[in-house]
Amino acid sequence: MIDDTDRMIIHALSADIRMSFAKIGAVLGIAEQTVARRYQALVRGGALQCTAFIDSLALGISQGVLRITPQPGAGGTLATALARHPDMSWVNITSSEVLAVHRPRSVGDRDEMVGDRIPKTSLVQSISSHTVVRRYPLVGNLPNFAELFTTTQLEHLRSVAEERFSVITERERDERSWRSTLQMGPVDHKILAMLEADARMPYATLAENLGWTPARAAQRIRELVDSGVMYLDFDVSLPQLGVALAAVVWGKVSVRQLESAGMAVGMLPEVPFVCATTGATNLMASVLCRDTRHLYDVMTQGFGATAGIDDLEVTPVVRQVKQARMFVNAGRMSRVAVS
Fold first, then answer.
1. Same structural domain for residues 326 and 314?
2. pLDDT digits 0-9 by tens, 195-252
3. Using CA atoms, how far apart are residues 164 and 121, in angstroms rounded to an integer?
4. Structural domain tally of the chain?
5. Which range of residues forms the domain containing residue 258?
6. What 8-state DSSP symbol labels residue 86?
7. Which among 275, 308, 324, 330 is least buried, having the fewest CB atoms inside 10 angstroms?
């Protein structure tokens, strides 16, 4: 199980996902070798994976949330098939449908997947696609273990972190993406593929694979991140963090109050993602809870107390198949899908 030292290492990586083990050790007051050993144990144990993503918004392509009703008995097979597609993230099975976030890399990919491939499969009964039109800021990125640090440690962490490599909020990502003018070339996609496998891959290793110098590789990665086209992030096993219950909340909100409602929901500590969407419901949020009573409190005291939310649909996740990048099985993450 993840202990407090592991949580502090994860928090340090959220400040700078490429921070050296030596710097993390200096902040935490432990040996560099201890940080390295614990990090590798987290990776091997399926608790943590540092990776990279293209932000489709920076490419002028909208993300979508897919709600798919599978044929009877086909939910698991369908979810696994979707999860194997590199553009699919957060693939979950609920009691009645399969949910997935679609992050297409081109308009053609988006149209082919939603308009042709998924509807034509024999596993699908019906599909609805909800375009993400606004991502709301959050009270804090999850996981956040700042309470485990002293004030001096947090100040030290901020002083040694390279901010461009922090796990940033959705709002910060949107601000970077909207101003992006950078165009990715073939070499950039090769860089992305290597960082998808390991966002902490040393510059020397990247440079060797590219035929570049380490300085040139580092500079190009900084350019890609600063432009908003690419960002670094990590997957963390939610069960290993103590999250026993995940749910997706769909709300109908008065258009005049949609902005304020989305901002208010983003202030709930149990919400790691909230957005405005197209469709019959116009507000969607992910919720992470300890148990059903905790979920009830979030529904009644959180969403229920938010002005403008007229109707609420709560769909608990029965099985998580894939997180942002990694497949999930029995609380452990891996790169291989388990049917």
1. no
2. 999 999 999 999 999 999 999 999 999 999 988 889 999 999 988 888 889 999 999 9
3. 41
4. 3
5. 239-318
6. T
7. 330
